[in-house]
Amino acid sequence: MREKESGFTLLELLIVMVIIGILATILFFNFTAQFQKTRLRNAVTMLSSDLERARSASWRSGQNTKIQLLGNGSGYTYQQGVSTSTVVFPDGVTASLAPASLANSISYTAPFADTGAISGTFTLRGVNPSYTDAIRIIGVTGKVIR
C-alpha cells in the first residue's frame, strides 16, 4: 500500500493563482482611480490657495493681481505687479473658467481686492470625465469658495 503524499496538486495551485490575479487586477484599478482623484484634489488645492493669495496680496500690497489659465487649461499664470509665475497642474488635470466673458482670467484690483462685480467658476477635470471639482469666485468681494 502506498503512503499518501502531502502537497498541492497542480489544479489547486492554478486556482490559487487565478484568485490572486483577480484580486491584483481589482486592487490595481482601485489604486489608479484613487491616484487620479488625488491629482485632482491637489490641483484644486493649488489653484484655490493661489486665488486666496492673489486676493490677499492685492489688498495688502496695493498691487493688482491676476490668475490666468494657460491656453490648453493645463495650468495657470500668477501675476502680481510685474512678477509672474507659472503653475502646471498634475498630469491629466485641466481647468476651464466660466463665464466666457472672463477670458480665462480673474483679476483682483488694488486697493480693495475686488473683481469688478464679476463672478466666475473654475472647473477642474481629471482624466476620467466623472472626476470634476469647482472653485467659485464671488462677485465684488472676490471671495474664493471651494
UniProtKB/TrEMBL annotation:
Bilayer disposition of the protein: Single-pass membrane protein
InterPro entries: N_methyl_site, Pilin-like
Pfam families from the UniProt entry: N_methyl
SUPFAM superfamilies xref list: Pili subunits
PROSITE patterns in UniProt: PROKAR_NTER_METHYL (PS00409)
One GO CC annotation: periplasmic space
Entry-linked Gene3D superfamilies: Glycoprotein, Type 4 Pilin
Transmembrane feature ranges: 6-31
Protein name as annotated: Prepilin-type N-terminal cleavage/methylation domain-containing protein
Organism the protein comes from: Deinococcus psychrotolerans
